[in-house]
Amino acid sequence: MSGALLVGGTSSDAGKSLIVAGLCRALARDGITVAPFKAQNMSNNSAVTLDGGEIGRAQALQAQACGLEPDTRFNPVLLKPGGDRRSHVVVRGRTVGEVGAADYQLWRTRLAGVVADELASLRRDFDVVICEGAGSVAEINLRATDIANMGLARAANMPVVLVTDIDRGGSLAHLFGTTAVLDADDQALVAGYIVNKFRGDPAVLAPGLEMVRERTGRPTFGVIPFADGLRLDAEDSLAASVGARVGGPRGVGGAGRERLSVAAIRLPRISNSTDVLALACEPDVDVTWVDDPSAVRAADLAVLPGTRATLSDLAWLRTTGLADALIERAQRGRPVLGVCGGFQMLCRSIVDTVESVGTVESGVARPVEGLGLLDVDIEFAEDKTLRTFDGHAAGEPVRGYEIHHGVVVRSEEQPWLDSAATGPEGARRGAVYGTHCHGALESDGFRRVFLAEIARRAGRTAFTADPRLCVAQVRRSQLDLMADLVCEHLDMPSIHGLIEGGPPAVPTVLSWLGEHRAPDRRA
Question: Catalytic residues (predicted)?
Fold first, then answer.
């Protein structure tokens, strides 16, 4: 088998990332060499490649589904949104500048060439490339500058399968309307549909799907049921909604054991929100996204995650009273964990010449006072640190990755992690812990030691972390679950036929509309 397929969506968060991961895993299990591809991603959840590049977290997960290490080719353009409708642009794994929404069209020619080159490279090296679209393919106001949806499909002559999230409602209209709003040449590439997250009896839905086929001339390749146990890494930090429990495949807590509560602060510009997933996988740990001081005060552990704008989110912490709640916790010896930008906020001072919100006079940035829970000073460097981390802490191995501009320039605290390659990392004082290392808690032995210390400080003497839990195995099991859903509920022979045969001959939806136009009653 050889070829490519684009999985597009009728909306954002329709499930494209998971469908791509499932297809990649299913093909890889059949012995086919397959790679994921997302031409342009907009997300603050990212991962580091082995060569020190940066790609979307979802593409790193899809790479794992394929049995591959993350590669910058899998996501050649990454937009990391900040404030004021501007985003940092990462091309081939490296930051190349900042752009506003209105200016982005000026980048199109250059980026279109990058995307085409990287896709061609993957198609040479792998039997199959499964591409993921971005947002909705029906954003026709952006079609002229599109390099990720129908623009990509048209340039590479790829068939497109549209995914819709029926759990949101309106999916039949979404499928018809999304197809109809495209111009005729783009419609010609839309081969059919996938209905995702369906609850209920498929027989009740079947007549609706047949009507969609009659009106569009396109089949539905399958209906994937809602899977309550499916909790793969979220691509977009918007998934971290306030009050929501962090999704983690959960075991059954032991009888008589105590539970730990974790309050993860939902920062306005949160990034790499997936850091707390490892904690949520523990059967006796409850993780909830919060934005109120009372929840921070009440939890056994408060987590301050990464952010795309350290100074802005630090100011927000102070405005909301969350800063006071964190300081009170530390003064009472109750645990606080800061990761990356969260770690920087816990420090004594921050000099940020990159963000520089309200801190620059005559081109010189002033230090901004942090929360002061760690006697550490941070200065932002022009070049971003992008590297994998392989070290140890508390006698246990720790693996993860770093993505940050902030650098520790002075520390009077004990390092928390250590690496033979990069030296001491992070800081700790009593019950306050900080690190630039993302993913450290996925190291099972280290996580168990850390949680035992949190439980001791919280007085949860009956709490025990699951000694059998392996987060990497949980993720592999999740990928296999998604592949099983795809194989069981999709018409895989037809999907294979699209990959090998390219876009099928299909009618335009506009022709159906013309034939069924309502009569003019003005006469």
Answer: 340 (nucleophile), 438
Residue 359, phi then psi, degrees to nearest 5: -125, 0
d(CA 238, CA 317): 18
The residue to which tokens 């999704």 are assigned = 247
In degrees rounded to 5, what are phi and psi of residue 300?
-75, -30
User: Which residues lie below 8 Å from residue 82, measured CB to CB, with a gap of 6+?
Assistant: 88, 98, 269, 308, 309, 355
Q: How far apart are CA 70 and CA 403, in angstroms?
A: 15
pTM of the model: 0.88
> Which pLDDT belongs to residue 508?
83
pLDDT over 60 at 130, yes or no: yes
Closest by CA position to 388, among listed 78, 70, 79: 70
- Give the Cβ contact number of residue 206 at 10 Å: 12
Decide if 164 contacts 195 (C-beta within 8 A): yes
What span, in angstroms and rounded, lies between the C-alpha atoms of 77 and 55? 8
Best CA proximity match to 122, nearest among 286, 3, 247:
3
H-state helical runs in 140-201 = 150-156, 171-181, 184-187
Residue 519 has pLDDT above 60, yes or no: no
DSSP letter (8 states) at residue 234: P
Show which residues are catalytic: 340, 438
d(CA 402, CA 88) in angstroms, rounded, equals: 17
Alpha-carbon distance of 138 to 157, in angstroms, equals: 18
Q: Which residue has the tokens 């589904």?
A: 65
**Number of Cβ within a 10 Å radius of residue 493:** 8
Residues in the chain, total:
523
143-165 per-position pLDDT tens digit: 988 999 999 999 999 999 999 99
Tokens of 411: 């520390």
DSSP letter, residue 253 = P
Phi and psi at 248, nearest 5°, equal: -155, 135
Contact assessment for residue 109 and residue 3, using Cβ atoms and an 8 Å cutoff: no
User: Are the C-beta atoms of residues 121 and 73 closer than 8 Å to each other?
Assistant: yes
The answer to whether the CB of 443 falls within 8 A of the CB of 397 is yes
* 3-class state of residue 425 by DSSP: strand
* Structural domains present in the chain: 3-219+491-515 (3.40.50.300), 239-470 (3.40.50.880)
Contacts of 63 (CB under 8 A, 6+ apart): 35, 36, 69, 70, 71, 74
Phi, psi of 288 (to 5 degrees): -135, 140
Q: Rounded to the nearest 5°, which phi and psi values hold at 165? A: -95, 100
- Distance, C-alpha 403 to centroid of its chain: 15
Query: Would you list the DSSP string of 339-407?
Result: ETHHHHHTEEEEE-TTT-TT-EETTEEPPEE---SEEEEEEEEEEEEEEEEEEEETTEEEEEEEEEEEE
Report the pLDDT value the prediction gives residue 358, as an integer from 0 to 100: 39
Distance separating alpha carbons of residues 494 and 504, to the nearest angstrom: 11
Q: Is 385 left (phi over 0), alpha (psi -120 to 50) or beta?
A: beta
